[in-house]
Amino acid sequence: MGLHLTEGGAELELGIPLARAAQGRGLWQVAMRGVASPVGAATEAQRIVVSTDARNVAALRLIARLGLPLVDMPHETGRPEPVFHWTRPPSDVVSFPIAPDRSR
């Protein structure tokens, strides 16, 4: 798992790479749910940012089921890399809203 808090602490970039044998078993979703609230409580980050390769259709479907809006589509590597983020609610809540996965 990779975590990167931007300078000033406004955004937290989160990466959870999975070995091919671990994919398709719900582990990424469990990891995201396990990280979002504690990270929200431990930092002042206003957003958690997640990106993936546009060719990773399974990851794109999962990100959509979790309710992350698409916010950017940079082409810095020569191919589209969709960027999604959760935004902290404007309150004293320390968790990030992650929609329940209703696909199961």
Fold blueprint:
Layout: E1 2-5, E2 11-15, H1 27-42, E3 47-51, H2 57-65, E4 70-72, E5 83-87
Parallel strand pairs: 2-3
Antiparallel strand pairs: 1-2, 3-5, 4-5
InterPro entries: Acyl_CoA_acyltransferase (IPR016181), GNAT_dom (IPR000182)
Keywords: Transferase
Protein name: Acetyltransferase (GNAT) domain-containing protein
Protein traits:
5-stranded mixed β-sheet; 5 strands; acyltransferase activity, transferring groups other than amino-acyl groups; globular; alpha+beta; 104 residues
How would you portray this structure in words?
- It comes from Jannaschia seohaensis.
- This is Acetyltransferase (GNAT) domain-containing protein.
- Residues 2-68 form the N-acetyltransferase domain.
- InterPro entries: Acyl_CoA_acyltransferase, GNAT_dom.
- The protein is α+β, with helices and mostly antiparallel strands and 104 residues long.
- The chain has one domain (2-87): Gcn5-related N-acetyltransferase (GNAT) (Aminopeptidase).
- Helix content is 24%, strand content 21%.
- It has helices at 27-42, 57-65; strands spanning 2-5, 11-15, 47-51, 70-72, 83-87.
- The radius of gyration is 14 Å and the shape is globular.
- The protein starts with a strand and ends in a 17-residue tail after the last strand.
